[in-house]
């Protein structure tokens, strides 16, 4: 299709005969992601494939064009790279030997899950699938493309966190959609600041849907678990995710929006479940919202808020207001009817009250729209396009240059940057609620921790601004936190239960899998040890390790 060759593969805009896209700034001949369908591949004689925008263990998502409707599309391809590879033409999928059953089983699940989502057309806060088909020995879904930015990007560009009124307007419609999804037994299991998307109209939508096997440990796919958003049951073999699992991810994302930080990883929170909120931010969040978040972020699933309906009640219910309403209802029954003049006065007051409520709601929405418009203009301005920040540090640096041009701060507003390197990040975040530190600076954590053989996990590796320099009082200090060494030592697990062993392996940053083995000395159901490695051995962070569980003595018959 000749007209497709005139489009930018990255945003599907008209190249206008130029080598650099006038809309997104990408070069005309930038290569496609390795393993993805070639640019211009046409499916169903209708859908033309553009850039691969993201991928996970389940498959690849592309931007494309529907030449029948003449609209941009989001094309999702079931193509698990761990189970298959491309044929020589770069399009057809060949299943790897021995993976045929698993590949077909999960392809069937992909189609079933997608059809269930496609039936949820009345939900405006989730992806709207309008076509599902099989081709090239793979499967595909088609949705209309919507320009968006992630919640993570939006929060970072909005100063590091957003207020409760703005968050409520964004999150509550998504909460309602999730409640409906779970009423139809549809789970997401990957709710995070990266799958919650802010649209141009100022509303938030949930994307990134994948089959459940991608969001759990010990499956045939590489696990896609966002640290801080994945619930503990997603890390442990044999645990079944439920609605409470999605409640955790949703609450963690709301916590991030309000505070600028995600909770620690769920396995680590089994030892210390505290949620650190700086004092300055805590005062801006209604107490009933803090309580609701604490309930929804309980580590054990049986103690956690079980449903989105319950979460809605806890977030929306203001105890004092509810009590006042109940009291007024009782008084209305007891007090005699007011005379006509009083009735008119009451009606007038109600009308004014209603007007004030409408104006307040409009102002809140205006704040959201203005914030989003600023982010969009900064991201896609009329001047030369700028790449989105790759880290919190870069974002803060860019925003600092935008806001510091109004004049230098007075000497009274300047402080010497403290040295945070080597200190425990969680303790710093907790101490920030103190009066002195809370008034001097705001602590922000960089996007991703870094491996370090020098600093233990959870310790600060570096900071920006540097220690000893000057900065304005109340400014942000962005810290990079250590993820610990890249090599992890296998803990002793012989004689433990499977759950105990899996938890111990997960706690050191490795991924447990299970295998059964006969043993005449170890009771059935008890861990024998590791397969092919021993306790004390070192493995790369995130590596899979097989736990051998006794199946009892081998039957002589």
- Kindly give the count of domains: 4
Helix content: 25-40%
CATH class descriptor name of the largest domain? Mainly Alpha
> What is the helix tally?
15
Assign the structural class, choosing from mainly alpha, mainly beta, alpha/beta, alpha+beta, or little secondary structure.
Answer: alpha+beta
Radius of gyration: 27 Å
Low-confidence parts = 319-344, 349-353, 355-359, 381-412, 433-438
Q: Give average pLDDT, whole number.
A: 82
Order of the strands making up the biggest sheet: 1-2-3-4-8-7
Quote the distance from N terminus to C terminus. 67 Å
As for the CATH topology of the largest domain, it is Transferase(Phosphotransferase), domain 1
Superfamily at the CATH H level of the largest domain? Transferase(Phosphotransferase) domain 1
CATH architecture of the largest domain: Orthogonal Bundle
């Amino acid at each position: 299709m000749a007209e497709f060759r005139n489009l930018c593969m990255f945003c599907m805009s008209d190249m206008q005969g130029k080598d650099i896209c006038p809309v997104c700034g990408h070069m005309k001949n930038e290569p496609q992601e390795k393993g993805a369908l070639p640019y211009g591949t046409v499916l169903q004689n209708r859908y033309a494939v553009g850039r691969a925008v993201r991928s996970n263990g389940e498959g690849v998502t592309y931007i494309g064009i529907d030449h029948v409707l003449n609209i941009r599309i989001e094309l999702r391809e079931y193509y698990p790279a761990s189970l298959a590879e491309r044929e020589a033409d770069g399009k057809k999928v060949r299943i790897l030997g021995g993976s045929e059953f698993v590949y077909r089983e999960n392809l069937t699940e992909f189609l079933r899950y997608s059809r269930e989502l496609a039936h949820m057309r009345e939900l405006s806060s989730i992806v709207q699938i309008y076509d599902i088909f099989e081709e090239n020995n793979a499967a595909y879904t088609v949705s209309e493309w919507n320009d968006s930015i992630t919640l993570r990007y939006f929060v970072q560009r909005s100063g590091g966190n957003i207020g409760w009124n703005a968050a409520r307007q964004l999150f509550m419609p998504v909460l309602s959609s999730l409640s409906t999804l779970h009423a139809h037994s549809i789970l997401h299991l990957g709710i995070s600041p990266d799958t919650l998307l802010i649209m141009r109209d100022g509303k938030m939508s949930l994307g990134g849907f994948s089959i459940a096997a991608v969001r759990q440990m010990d499956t045939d796919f590489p696990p896609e678990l966002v640290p801080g958003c994945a619930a503990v049951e997603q890390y442990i073999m044999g645990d079944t995710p439920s609605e409470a699992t999605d409640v955790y991810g949703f609450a963690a994302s709301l916590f991030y929006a309000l505070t600028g930080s995600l909770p620690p990883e769920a396995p680590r929170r089994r030892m210390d479940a505290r949620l650190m909120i700086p004092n300055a931010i805590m005062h801006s969040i209604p107490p009933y919202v803090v309580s609701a978040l604490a309930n929804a972020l309980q580590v054990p699933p049986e103690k956690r808020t079980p449903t989105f309906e319950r979460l809605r009640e806890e977030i929306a219910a203001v105890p004092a207001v509810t009590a006042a309403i109940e009291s007024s209802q009782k008084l209305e029954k007891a007090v005699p009817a007011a005379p006509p003049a009083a009735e008119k006065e009451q009606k007038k007051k109600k009308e004014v009250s209603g007007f004030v409520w409408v104006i307040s709601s409009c102002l809140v929405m205006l704040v959201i729209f203005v914030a989003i418009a600023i982010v969009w203009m900064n991201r896609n301005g009329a001047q030369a396009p700028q790449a989105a920040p790759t880290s919190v540090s870069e974002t803060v640096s860019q925003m600092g240059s935008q806001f510091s041009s109004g004049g230098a701060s007075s000497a009274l507003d300047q402080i010497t940057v403290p040295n945070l390197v080597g200190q425990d990040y969680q303790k710093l975040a907790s101490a920030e609620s103190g009066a002195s530190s809370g008034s001097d600076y705001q602590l922000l954590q960089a996007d991703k921790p870094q491996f370090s053989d020098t600093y233990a996990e959870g310790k600060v590796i570096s900071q920006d601004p540097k220690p000893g320099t000057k900065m304005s009082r109340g400014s942000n200090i962005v810290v990079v936190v250590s993820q610990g060494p890249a090599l992890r030592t296998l803990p002793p697990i012989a004689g433990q239960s499977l759950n105990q062993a899996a938890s111990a392996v997960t706690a050191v940053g490795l991924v447990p899998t299970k295998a059964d083995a006969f043993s005449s000395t170890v009771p059935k159901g008890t861990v024998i040890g590791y397969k092919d490695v021993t306790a004390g051995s070192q493995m790369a962070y995130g590596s899979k390790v097989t736990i051998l569980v006794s199946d009892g003595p081998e039957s002589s018959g």
